Amino acid sequence: MAVGTMVSRATGLIRQVLQGVALGTGLLASTYNTANTVPTSLYTLLIGGALTSVLVPQLVRARLTDADGGRAYEQRIVTLVLCVLGAGTVLAVWAAPQIVSVYMPDTPDQHAAYQLTVTFARYLLPQIFFYGLYSIYGQVLNARERFGAMMWTPVLNNFVLIAMFGGYLTLLTVPTEVGDVTSLHVRVLGIGTTAALALQAVALVPFARAAGFRFRPRFDWRGTGLGSSIAAARWTLLYVLANLAAMTVVTHYANAVDAATPDAGAGYSAYSYAQTIWVLPQSLITVSVVTALLPRLSRSAAQGDRDQLRGDLARALRLTGALIVPAGFLFLALGPQIAALLFGHGAVNTTAPLGQMLQSFGLGLIPYSAQYVLLRGFYAYEDTRTPFLMATVIAAVNIALALTCHALLPVRWAVVGMAACYGVSYLVGLAVTARRLRRRLGRRIGGGVSSTYLRLVVASAVASGAAWWVTRTVGSPGTAGLSVGLGAGLLAAALLYLLAGRVLRIEELKRFTRRGGG
User: Fold this and answer.
1) Which pLDDT does position 518 carry in this prediction?
2) Is residue 136 within 8 Å of residue 75, measured between CB atoms?
């Protein structure tokens, strides 16, 4: 799983870099990026959150308790999901102007950008259906503890997008302003992006067949237990709404920065690129660990084994923290250099705001990852109400802080401040979530989590400080100089981190070094 995710994220990063070269980080890029955010948001709102948090426990339970091993339940769930998303996709394409206006208002000053975003959205909104197809087949595989295919098929998506952006750069006259974009540019980007996701989704079908799943449409939904799934999903829907509310506020104000300073690279596109880099360790490490762990957590909850559930959560926190904590510190130390190396090419005028946003996101990775792990303790009990309440707290804090940044900070620094606020909101949410989970499980998770994280923070701070000094000392301007400097800094950080881990007796790192040496 980790290898598949690593290849997927690596190719995704290459695609993101090519996208930056082609579109830049200013207003033009934000029209495409905003339109590409809309189908993801609507898919998650329609049913995406329920798929990952509600249906895996339900599918596992059906496979354990139903006479047919859960086969009929799976058929009904897949049919229901595809029907909901098919209808939702048609409605979304029809209502594209109204949907886009939430993220980018149609004002006289940015009417051309708004219209271009709507045009992109009409091409990209069919992704809603393919997100659903990919996710529901992925959950069917996860319930069977077949995790590899879902981690590898995104690589196909990335290859198509890499080819698309490569062709866009080499075969077309690349525009630099919104007014220079032609219908051909829009068709290449719009059709190519949606086709890439469609390939990713369809590629899961043969893996599901090999795992024993055969799709047969079933519309006999009444009296078959789907009601409990839908009831559980209502809280997930509210959870998604809370997250989308915060994201919409940030996107709205970040697009306002792009409208005010179209060429500064200090708005939504820079924010989204920085967040994409920042979330890579979470996607590679935390999601892989938790995806494999969720069926086991669900079984422990179903059997009433709280001790086993607490132990699994503690182990997941320690394992993920051993790599997430140093990653957060490295983003804080090396954000500008990482941004310059990856995005300082082509249509990008400056990477300074992007690098500062990456630094601001930095340490927020630690509570973001830990919060993701702890929520799975509630999902194992099919409790979706508590995660909704936690999401409401996080969203409220994030919205309040984003509004403060928009009102008080200079335009150039507003979105940099919003990136820092994202991590602060998750730190507040983590504290509240830990208290609620302690009540649910009868006592604290324990397992040495607090002491392990304290030692990880000390080791990471020392290692990232060394990386900052080595990178600035060895590195020089230009791609080659930045590569050498970052390579030397990361090597120094890795060695010092492992050494500090041994001195501080961090068990997870001791095991890692023993395996590496063996």
Assistant:
1) 42
2) no
